[in-house]
Specification:
Sortase, Chain: A; eight-stranded mixed β-barrel; 8 strands; 21% strand
Length: 261
């Protein structure tokens, strides 16, 4: 019996060691993916910083003339569609769009190499159809708060009311958006009612979406957009619900003059 007991203890010890090694391997893999994502973003920020340092005073450009501001980034990646930044959150990223492969940047970085980070990317239909009043942006909920990992702070009414401004510029249209609604849904409840309304391609759909937002939002933000004000919707995973999705929707409330300050 002692011999059998010793054998089981030995087997248990080996199992523990193997489990520990496997967990270590997975941890190192995650860290390697995170480091690669950070390095990819560092190159993007370096391009933007170099551009800012080279700028000289120029005559004021007409409203919307922003394409030249993006020239260095477009030279690196022609899929650049804009920039998003939120004060109070570590959200300060280029927005990508790949019409031929709509979800390409779900698992690819700015350099187009495979990446667990992915990038913030735009729903292709938003780029293809001018009548879309709601620009849909997707991003991973990274554990370290990168990409849209910090959006869950908007679940707090105090945070939402203190940080209502979302800045989203396309290549030609700079914009400042005000928080209108925050709500969560399990992926299984994203039925045709909501998915059909999200692009807001008609005034009827737009106004129905606003009513849906007012009904479902977690708290009163003090603002609801009105037709034909442009909308931007940020979407990411949410973990208070099983296979949950977090929606942060804002309406346009002004304009600014450059992609970054």
């Amino acid at each position: 019996m002692k011999k059998i007991g010793g054998m089981f203890r030995c087997m248990f010890a080996v199992l523990c060691i193997c489990t520990g090694l496997w967990c270590g391997i997975l941890y190192l893999k995650d860290m390697r993916e995170y480091c690669r994502g950070e390095e990819d973003l560092a190159r993007v920020y370096a391009v933007v910083k170099a551009q800012e340092e080279q700028k000289k005073p120029k005559p004021k450009k007409p409203a919307g003339a922003l394409v030249s501001d993006y020239a260095p980034l477009l030279a690196e990646n022609g899929d650049v569609a804009g920039w998003i930044r939120i004060e109070g959150l570590p959200v300060d990223y280029p927005v990508l769009c790949s019409p031929s492969e709509p979800d390409f940047y779900l698992d690819h970085g700015f350099d187009k190499a495979p990446s667990a980070y992915g990038m913030i990317y735009m729903e292709a239909v938003c780029a293809a159809k001018e009548e879309c009043k709601n620009v849909l942006l997707y991003g991973h909920h990274m554990k370290n708060g990168a990409m849209f990992g910090a959006l869950d702070q908007y679940l707090s009414p105090e945070f939402g009311r203190a940080h209502p401004q979302i800045r989203f510029d396309t290549l030609e249209i700079p914009g400042v958006y005000e928080l209108a609604a925050v709500f969560c849904l399990p992926a299984g409840e994203l039925g045709e009612e909501l998915t059909g309304l999200l692009p807001a391609e008609s005034r009827e759909d737009y106004e129905a979406l606003v009513k849906y937002m007012e009904k479902e939002r977690l708290y009163d933000t003090g603002f609801l957009p009105k037709w034909p004000e442009r909308l931007v919707t940020l979407m990411t995973c949410e973990y208070t619900k099983r296979d949950g999705r977090l929606f942060v929707i804002a309406g346009e409330r002004g304009s600014v003059n450059s992609i970054k300050k």
